[in-house]
Amino acid sequence: MTVPAIFFLESVKPLSFVGSQALHFFEPMVNAFFQVRDYERFAALMERRENLEALLVKIEARDDAARAEEKAQRERDRAARAERKRGKESS
Predict the structure, then answer these.
(1) Cα separations (Å) of 78 from 15, 54, 65, 70, 82?
(2) Which residues contact 75 (CB under 8 A, 6 or more apart)?
(3) Proportion of the chain above pLDDT 70, given as a percent
(4) φ, ψ for residue 30 (rounded to 5)?
(5) 16, 46, 52, 73 — which has fewest CB within 10 A?
(6) Is residue 6 a contact partner of residue 56, using CB atoms and an 8 Å limit?
(7) Average pLDDT, whole number, for the chain?
(8) 59 pLDDT exceeds 80?
(9) Is 11 exposed, middle or buried (0-12, 13-18, 19+ CB in 10 A)?
């Protein structure tokens, strides 16, 4: 889901300020129906494009870390299978 998330965030980056202003406009109506504690904070974060860029960087870093962990796990599994195979051959 990393690629669709990055694609979506990249495509809405130019509209982030307009979207944040819409969030501020609708805040009284949203608060009338829902208790959303972080709504105002989210709207303020969306005002600056740098925040979206930072979010994109964090998503990419987490994805890279997950891929590296998967690769390391595959290598450990491969080594364990090779060790078992050598153990069967020697007995």
Answers:
(1) 47, 36, 20, 12, 6
(2) none
(3) 98
(4) -65, -45
(5) 73
(6) yes
(7) 89
(8) yes
(9) exposed
* pLDDT, average across residues 63-75: 96
Torsion of the alpha carbons at 84, 86, 88 and 91, rounded to the nearest 10: -140
**What are the C-alpha distances in Å from 3 to residues 8, 14, 19, 69?**
9, 18, 22, 18
Please, where are the H alpha helices in the chain?
2-12, 16-33, 39-46, 49-90
* Tokens (6 digits) for 37: 């504690």
**Does residue 62 have a pLDDT over 70?**
yes
State the Cα angle at 27 between 44 and 15, rounded to 5°: 50
Taking residues 8-36, what's their average pLDDT? 88
